[in-house]
Amino acid sequence: xxxxxxxxxxxxxxxxxxxxxxxxxxxxxxxxxxxxxxxxxxxxxxxxxxxxxxxxxxxxxxxxxxxxxxxxxxxxxxxxxxxxxxxxxxxxxxxxxxxxxxxxxxxxxxxxxxxxxxxxxxxxxxxxxxxxxxxxxxxxxxxxxxxxxxxxxxxxxxxxxxxxxxxxxxxxxxxxxxxxxxxxxxxxxxxxxxxxxxxxx
Amino acid sequence: xxxxxxxxxxxxxxxxxxxxxxxxxxxxxxxxxxxxxxxxxxxxxxxxxxxxxxxxxxxxxxxxxxxxxxxxxxxxxxxxxxxxxxxxxxxxxxxxxxxxxxxxxxxxxxxxxxxxxxxxxxxxxxxxxxxxxxxxxxxxxxxxxxxxxxxxxxxxxxxxxxxxxxxxxxxxxxxxxxxxxxxxxxxxxxxxxxxxxxxxxxxxxxxxxxxxxxxxxxxxxxxxxxxxxxxxxxxxxxxxxxxxxxxxxxxxxxxxxxxxxxxxxxxxxxxxxxxxxxxxxxxxxxxxxxxxxxxxxxxxxxxxxxxxxxxxxxxxxxxxxxxxxxxxxxxx
Lengths: 201, 332
Fold this sequence. Notes:
The complex is a heterodimer.
Chain A: H1 2-21, E1 31-47, E2 55-56, E3 66-76, E4 81-93, E5 99-115, E6 119-134, E7 137-153, E8 158-171, E9 186-200
Antiparallel strand pairs in A: 1-2, 1-3, 1-9, 3-4, 4-5, 5-6, 6-7, 7-8, 8-9
Chain B: H1 2-20, E1 22-23, H2 30-35, E2 45-52, E3 55-60, E4 63-67, E5 72-77, E6 83-90, E7 93-99, E8 108-112, E9 118-124, E10 126-129, E11 134-137, E12 142-145, E13 151-153, E14 160-164, E15 167-171, E16 175-180, E17 185-191, E18 201-207, E19 214-219, E20 223-227, E21 232-237, E22 248-254, E23 257-263, E24 268-274, E25 277-283, H3 288-291, E26 297-302, E27 309-313, E28 318-321, E29 328-330
Antiparallel strand pairs in B: 2-3, 3-4, 4-5, 6-7, 7-8, 8-9, 10-11, 11-12, 12-13, 14-15, 15-16, 16-17, 18-19, 19-20, 20-21, 22-23, 23-24, 24-25, 26-27, 27-28, 28-29
């Protein structure tokens, strides 16, 4: 079992080596549409002004798994840099359980250092805002994420990949905010694990 | 040029993010609410009834149960033929108000022992029964107490009833009255002013710091009033969104200052009464006020441990709280 696992890993690395040496595949003006769906896991809930209340995966007051979905569109600014936007939807239940939902609308910048035409390895950064809702509370929150996505293109246009990384949503209030909200300034971190279907042309 | 444009775009985006980041109506922050959310206990508690023989007695959606920290036993089951609507625990007896589905006039109070054995005593045609033991018969406009055979004829129909510790607030057609339940003695009677009605009172609390108790009521708009025989005076307003239905509360005195804590929809609000000065604030510190902030509270009653209170929640268990320290202990 160990030998076969090692063999698979070696073959995978060998298969990827040419990718790093290959010429670039994309050209300025190429476009990519992506559809993403999967699960997300709560990683941390950090209280910036009250660190004692910070919760991590082991004790966070959320269910263990939620869901995510999104659509995105990007255009290549250069051979390996694409810029575009993404509209998403995330949900997860609290312990109660009450549903927490988030609708991030973000600008998405992707760097693709490995691109063979068949295999892409992409690093993306999203920056924007998210409409979040929980019980009676609503908030328009700053949102940022960093993700990595290996993809295989099974045809010239259609590819399938897996994405993971870290997605963060912040709740920021000023010192003058009512209800002692300043002490509740916080950042929620979620780890996505999603299947991504991409169409490029 | 390209780099400059990208930098400008990034700066613009960040500016928009921080400028637009605004709270719509999450009073204390959504993530703070999530961090204080409590797990569903799996039992829907309608009311905490009291303590006897080292057990806590509760009314759930399935009947009457006795619980301690390690066990739960259903003593009296609610069935279609005998639906348990309300219950109380008085003098080591359980009284339940039952009715049969679709049978008009079947409402009756039935007495049970602590082991769930049915006894012969029944009080028929009862419209409602409170946790502190008061019951009301609409056909005769009679108020009674399950712990005695004494009754009081009210003279007019009760349109609303609220309880607080050993006292009951009744809204009649043209006046509010307060009774001591155990003795069925009238504590006060006051005409309903034009600004209030017979049906819009959602909260009621007795204050027992002096030998003569005083009373507060809350109307459906969240206004808090003091209630005396001569006047109803508006003193404060609950700031948070009100809970649906009645608003639960408890009273305590600390260092000579009176406090009444109300459970609003998502927050506890604490009314401070210092001499004749009234001041209310959202109360959210470590302890019960954050642990149970989002919970739907079924009822709040004094604990058998002096100075503490029991907060029963619909889905999030039953808690004993210490109002002075904020400490909350799950007793289920």
